Model the fold of this input.
Amino acid sequence: MSRPHRLYARFRRSVRRIGRRTAPDLIDTSAAGAARFVRSLRGAGYCPFLLADDHTAAACPEVVDELSAPGSSWILPGTPRVVPAIETSRELSRRIEAAGTTPMLVVVGAGTLTDIAKHAALSADVPVIALPTAPSVDAYASARSALRIDGYHRTPSCRVPAAVLSCADVIEAAPDELILAGLGDLTAKLIARIDWEVSSIVTGEPFDRAQADWCAFCARSAVASLRHGTLRSAAIPALDALMVSGLSMQLIGASRPAASAEHTLAHLWEIAVPFDPSQTDLHGLLVTTAIRTVVERYRSICAALSTGKAPSGSAHDIAAAEAGWRDRVPVEMSPFTGKMEEESAGRSLGETEVTRRRDAIAVNRGRIVELCGALDDAERALDALDRAGIGAYEAQIPDVWVTRAIDWVRYLRNRYSLFDVEFEMGWTV
Ligand SMILES: [Zn+2]
Done:
């Protein structure tokens, strides 16, 4: 018997304490099998409520035909692309509550619709079942929804799907850019693995080696399916790895195993850059573009560490630069000052702490350079994505926004990365 989701199955077994968290059942089926499954929900006394959009409904008509009925379904227009706005989640939750007794939400879609559905399901207090139409994000098993709230990307709590219906005939027929986006998002796990351990070394942040290794291993495995096969053949392995990543985030209680500086860059661009309609602002594609920038910069930081480059300026200068960041905010970044204030609130970097961190970096620079070996894997992944044609879908980020994102990444998210090492060593001041 083939086991298309062997990594998620193994990971789930390896997790000794799920506790009150939810590890979704991942059911391997087909579109026709999924239709039979949702029909059986009615037999079990549930009234399924369907969320889809025009595109995702067309990707799985079997399930949509089974469930679409006035008052118990909401099929959004697919063009322009649905935005992950909290207002849409609130409207969905209102519609579910109006729909009647014993509802259960069934979402047929990829990242945006799943995030909206998971959030609405928690508000309406109903179970949710996800039928992914693309292996594009790690939302399917995560306990957070990526939504736009008050003009910025945020991740409120949500209800984790009780089950994820993986229909190979649907997943493998997903648009190229969505499969590529998922593989790009997986490549970010390699960067996240570096930054998480570097943070534990320098700041003492708790680090879960097993979770970090699982996520990086699954990402490499999915990318290997692309390198040694085709984009279609990598679709199910990508979903498998994305499920591991989503569950890992749940277990850690944060996105640390899955996202680091590259995600912060991508989230800024998502909000700040006015995209040409011919370009796509899909999460995983923006993350891929950000990884290109991050890999290049991390290479130079790693080179400086490996040659034993001395810190520039005094610890006092660094602490003063940190304390005076508000005076340096350029006009383009002023809409994000509130977000940066919020992130800075939990952090202090005085002179003593800078000195302590510089010492920790000097003592452990060999290990940090060793960790940067994962940049080779990230570059191999980018090569495979390039050969599969990801460049045709990536947006052109204006230079000013590349520079702004790098300059302000430390303030936009309080998540330690090699950008912090660079700053604390005085190599940017
Ligand atoms: Zn992501």
Summary: The two ends are 58 Å apart (CA to CA). The longest helix spans residues 176-202. The CA atoms of residues 177 and 393 lie 6 Å apart. Residues 185, 188, 259, 263, 283, 287 surround zinc ion (CB under 6 Å).
